[in-house]
């Protein structure tokens, strides 16, 4: 992300001085866990608003648990769900649903081709009363692991 910001600042400086930018970093180089999870969260909200549902606001507590789960799955190189009772009580929610995915090079694909094509995961992402979301991502050995939490109080 640091390199991406530097490239953008350099590009702005070049445009401001009248110089023409010849090249910038490729998107593949710029993908960090933060970028991946933010793109996933944006895509979750896109599929919700496409269906006239409220966009979900990110919650720091939910993000923390989602990121922790993504790291654990990447370390074990397997998909599994965490104890949602713990997330629910620590984040002060009455409902928490979890979706997980792995193996998608792009976060958009993880949401739209992965999670949305699973009846159970789609139902969680499109839970109408939900108002909060947390997202976490971790890459290990070239494989992305994604966790998205959806919740309401």
Structure description:
The chain is of the alpha+beta class and 153 residues long. It contains seven helices and four strands, in the order αααβααβααββ. It is globular and about 35 Å long. The relative contact order is 0.20.
At a glance:
This protein is an alpha+beta fold and 153 residues long. Helices cover 50% and strands 19% of the residues. The chain has a four-stranded mixed beta sheet with strand order 1-3-4-2, with helices on both faces.
Amino- and carboxy-terminal Cα gap: 33 Å
> How helix-rich are the residues, as a percent range?
40-55%
Helix-strand pattern: HHHEHHEHHEE
Strand order of the largest sheet: 1-3-4-2
Signal peptide: 1-21
Protein name: CAP domain-containing protein
InterPro entries: CAP_dom (IPR014044), CAP_sf (IPR035940)
Domain SCP: 42-147
Task: Supply the key terms.
about 150 residues; alpha+beta; 4-stranded mixed β-sheet; 7 helices; 4 strands; globular; disordered N terminus; CAP_sf; CAP domain-containing protein; signal; CAP_dom
């Amino acid at each position: 992300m640091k390199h991406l910001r530097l490239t953008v600042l350099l590009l702005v400086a070049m445009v401001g001085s009248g110089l023409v930018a010849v090249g910038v970093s490729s998107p593949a180089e710029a993908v960090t866990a933060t970028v991946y999870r933010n793109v996933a969260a944006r895509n979750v909200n896109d599929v919700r608003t496409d269906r006239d549902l409220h966009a979900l606001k990110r919650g720091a507590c939910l993000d923390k648990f989602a990121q922790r789960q993504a790291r654990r799955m990447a370390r074990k190189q397997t998909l599994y769900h965490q104890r949602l009772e713990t997330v629910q009580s620590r984040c002060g929610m009455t409902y928490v649903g979890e979706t997980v995915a792995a193996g998608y090079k792009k976060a958009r694909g993880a949401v739209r081709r992965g999670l949305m094509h699973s009846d159970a995961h789609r139902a969680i992402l499109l839970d109408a009363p939900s108002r909060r979301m947390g997202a976490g991502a971790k890459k290990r050995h070239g494989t992305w692991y994604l966790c998205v939490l959806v919740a309401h109080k």
